[in-house]
Each structure stands twice: as structure tokens, then as C-alpha cells.
Known about the structure:
- The protein is α+β, with helices and mostly antiparallel strands.
- It has 15 helices and 22 strands.
- It has helices at 12-24, 41-45, 64-74, 90-98, 108-115, 117-126, 142-152, 175-193, 249-265, 298-305, 309-317, 397-410, 420-427, 430-434, 441-451, and strands at 5-8, 28-34, 48-53, 78-80, 102-103, 156-160, 170-172, 198-202, 208-217, 221-233, 236-242, 269-279, 284-291, 334-341, 343-344, 350-351, 354-355, 358-360, 368-371, 378-379, 386-394, 412-414.
- Strands 13-12-9-10-11-14-21-19 form an eight-stranded antiparallel sheet, sandwiched between helices.
- Helix 4 packs antiparallel against helix 5, helix 7 (142-152) crosses helix 8 and helix 12 (397-410) runs antiparallel to helix 13.
- The longest helix is centred in the middle third of the chain and has 19 residues, at 175-193.
- The protein starts with a strand and ends with a helix.
- The mean pLDDT is 94.
Amino acid sequence: MTIKTLFIANRGEIAVRVILAAKALGIRTVQAASEADTDMLAARMADQVVVLGGAPAAQSYLNIPAVLDAIRSSGADAVHPGYGFLSENADFVEQVERMGVTFVGPTAETIRKMGDKSAARAEAIAAGVPVVPGSTGDVADAQEAQAVAREIGYPVMIKARAGGGGRGIRISGSADELSSLIPQAKAEARAAFGDDALYLERYIPRARHVEVQVLGDGERVVHLFERECSLQRKRQKVWEEAPAAALPPATREALCESAVALATRVGYRGAGTLEYLYDEGTGAFFFIEMNTRIQVEHPVTEMITGIDLVQAQLRIAGGEKLWLSQRDIQAKGHAIEVRINAENPDRMFMPSPGTVSALTVPHEDVARFDTMLFAGYKVVPFYDSLIGKLIVYGRDRADALVRLEAALDGLQIEGIATTRSLHKALLGAPDVRAGNVHTTWLEDWMKDRASDPK
């Protein structure tokens, strides 16, 4: 391993996850922390802690000059960005590499190309990967958007070129509605991403969200099969599984091969995820975007393949050529991850910061719990509400569901409200147990429950 000291430019559970992987490879760790995070679990575990600035992310984890100064002063020779924050910021990557420090991830050029959703669509088309019918590039205004919509048919989805995490998306069913939504979408995209460019795609109702995990070394790419992430609230994933049980074998093979073709075309380096919509009615799948970083839901892939993805990221960043052939990678069993957020499902998912007065986690034989929590930890209100991921593995999906029920029973977080109760309720839903879900199923189910609390 050529990396000697790793700077972790993130916080929370992913920072803990990266430290564990680095220590397993004998790498010294330096943890970045805001003034509100100096006592977080990752800071306690790291060999060194560097304070970036104030609690707001703009003063700390998103403050590029402060992060670069911290990397320089720490003497680190590599940076792991985790997910979110600066993980897909091509300008940040360029400045890190200009300092002679290794970025654990793809090149700035790849991030720029695949982070631009319009450019990524063009790359997918060039690689022969099917995309959702839509505009060939950005749409300048409502008139151009209406012309595209007439061609591809309503309803359509308005998406931000620089978007991610579901932000900036609008769905329109008519020309008049489209005309009124375009200015709103532009304003949100400008505020969220500093870029108000938009493009259009046909909206596919009742689609499933399926994504393929890839690993590349800049020359060769392999896939680690797919995940299904259809259970979403406000386009945020809450429950993920691997494999996607609804996919016929031939479709799974074609989907995974398409992901490898696209990642190979852009010379992908590191761990990445290609996201698709799957139309179960027609059997068609469509590429929607690529995430050029580790995903929140990566553990379910690790559980079915036995491959540590964060260690793989570090080995590739350290200069190793890909040591896996596609034949080496086998998927066995079924894994489910549910996201535990500090939110109150009974109060419109209101954030629930506060001190964890007691914590009991399921035995490791029952479940894996990736978390930042410990008894006495104070969940601060400044960041994303994700506080842990409960992951179970079974010989098949039915077995995994049984194990998830036991794991949720064994997880007790006292002092704050969490989304554990939501997952307990979902386990009792016949559609979830049967796997009959799609990307809008969860919100429909929640509306039904609200109108009939019995």
C-alpha cells in the first residue's frame, strides 16, 4: 500500500466506515471535523483530528480553502471524500491533485463529464446504453421544453443538469404546467447547484430504481451486480436491497453489461454507481445518471459479494491494478439495508437532534450496523439526518426479511426519535414483503396510512 496517511474529508457514519477500512490496510488516518463534530465517533477513532471551521457545512466540510489547508498541514498523502459534500466536486479534485495528493476516486475530468447529466446521457448513448427518451441537451426555456415534450409525450420530468439526490426535479403533465414549472426548476437548480441548466426526460410512472455497482482502475472495469432502491420518500432512498429480485436473469446480465460498457468508455477509476429506471411492464431499462463516489447503500453489495468496496477504493487509489476478473465476482444470498435517520415519522419526519441516552445494537451475527452513534453522543442539527444503516443478510429474500425483523427489534436508540418505527411498519406491508414496489409506492402508502390510521 503506497498510501501512508489518509485524510477523511467527511463526517458521520461514512467517516467511521472509511477509518475502519484504512486501519485494516495499515493506513494512518486524519479526520476532518467542524467545531460541532470534534467529539464524533470518527474523531475519537482517527489518529489525528483537524478542525476545519464552524458548524455550518459552508464553513467546514464545503469550505474548499479550509479543507485544502487542513490536508496540507496534516501531511496526508491521500484524501477520501466519502459521499456528499465535496465528493463529486471536480474543482476540488483538481486542486487536491495539484498539491500532489491522491484523490480516492475518479479523475476530475470523469467527475465533470458524468456529473453533468446532459453530458452523461450523451456518453450513455454513445456507449449503446438505453436512456429515457428526452431532450438531446439542455432546454433553454419553456418554449423549447414544450417542443421536446410534444415529441416524447407527457408526462415529462424536468431535471437539473447539475442535480443529484432528487433535488431540482419537477413532473409535468401538460404544456401549461410545464410553462409554469420551468422557471421554478431553474430557480431551485440555481440555488442548489449554482447552475440553472435543465433537461427533459419522459416520466415513467411505477418504475423501479435499479443501480449497478462498478469498480475500475482507469483501464478495466468490472461490475458487482445490482441493487434495488425503489422505496423512496421525496426521491430519497430509505430501503435498499441486493440483488434486485424483480429482474429476470437475462435483463440483469444486459443491465450489468451496459454499466460496464459505459464506465469503460469514460475510463472509470474507483467505485461508481450507474443508476437506471426499470419498467417492469415492458422489461426495458434506461440509464438515468452516474454517481462517481461510494454510495450510502454500498454495504448490501458487500454482503452479497464478500468484497470490501472501501478497501477496494483505497487499493486502486494506491496504484493497484484491478485484481478481480468478472468471473471472480459471484453474488450469493440476499441483503437488505434500511436507513436510520434522526427524524420523527409521526411528526412529518421532523428532524430530531439531541443526545443519545442509551444505545443497544443487534448482535453482529444478526445484523451489521454502520453508525456514528454511541451512548452520550449528541446528534447535532447542522447536517443530514442519517445516523446509521442497519444491514442484514439471508440465504434468500424471505430469510433476509426475517432477519431484518429481528435486527429492528434488537436496535434500541433512546433519547431521540428515529425512523426505526417506519421500517417496522414497512415490514408489515404485504407489497413490501412481496417486493411489489416502485419509486412512488412509499409516498402513496404513507398517504393511505395517514388517511386511515387504523
